[in-house]
Specification:
Helix 1 packs antiparallel against helix 2 and helix 2 runs antiparallel to helix 3. It contains 3 helices and no strands. By secondary structure, it is mostly helical. Helices cover 81% and strands 0% of the residues.
């Protein structure tokens, strides 16, 4: 049963990675591409790491995986937000500088 759950989480994570890749190719501008890849990569990596938690291993390995998940969930959206803000300010934000 645990291997089945691990497989479900791993395949779900791979699906979100694929969806993010399709969004990166299909969307027209930088901000929408960044949105698609950030959301899908954060969720995809989280699901893959949760799937790895179900495989047998020691407690320290599982603790490391949980810490990596928390680190990804905190840093990936934050970094994407600041990159999107920089893109907005340098390109499209010159007409309307309402972000501050």
């Amino acid at each position: 049963m645990t291997y089945f759950l691990a497989s479900v989480f791993l395949l779900s994570g791979l699906f979100f990675f694929l969806a993010g890749t399709v969004g990166l190719i299909r969307f027209p501008d930088v901000l929408t591409r960044m949105h698609a890849t950030t959301k899908c990569d954060t969720l995809g990596a989280g699901l893959v790491l949760v799937g790895l938690l179900f495989y047998p291993g020691n407690t320290y390995l599982r603790l490391k995986l949980v810490l990596v998940i928390a680190f990804l969930w905190l840093t990936n959206p934050t970094a994407a937000h600041y990159m999107a803000r920089a893109v907005y300010r340098t390109t499209e934000g010159e007409q309307d500088a309402s972000i501050d």
